[in-house]
Amino acid sequence: MQLPVATAAPAREPHVPAQKPPVDPASLTYRQLQRGEFWRKLPAYAEIDERTFLDHSWQAKHSITRPDKLIEALKDLVSPLFLEDAKAGFSRSPMSVRVSPYLMSLIDWSHPYDDPLRRQFIPVASRMMADHPKLDLDSLNEQGDAPVPGLTHRYPDKALFLALDTCPVYCRFCTRSYAVGLDTEEVEKVNLRASQDRWARAFAYIASRPELEDIVVSGGDAYQLRAAQLTEISDALLAMPNIRRVRFATKGPAVMPQKILTDLAWRDALVGAVDKGRRLHKEVVLHTHFNHPNEITGITEDAMNALFERGVTVRNQCVLQRRVNDTPETMALLVKRLGHVHVVPYYVYMHDLVRGVEDLRTTLDTALHIEKHVRGATAGFHTPTFVVDAPGGGGKRDVHSYEYYDRETGVSVFTSPNVKKGAYYLYFDPLHSLSEAARRRWEEPAEQELMVDNAIVRARRQAR
Question: How confident is the model at residue 189, as a pLDDT?
Answer without folding.
Answer: 45
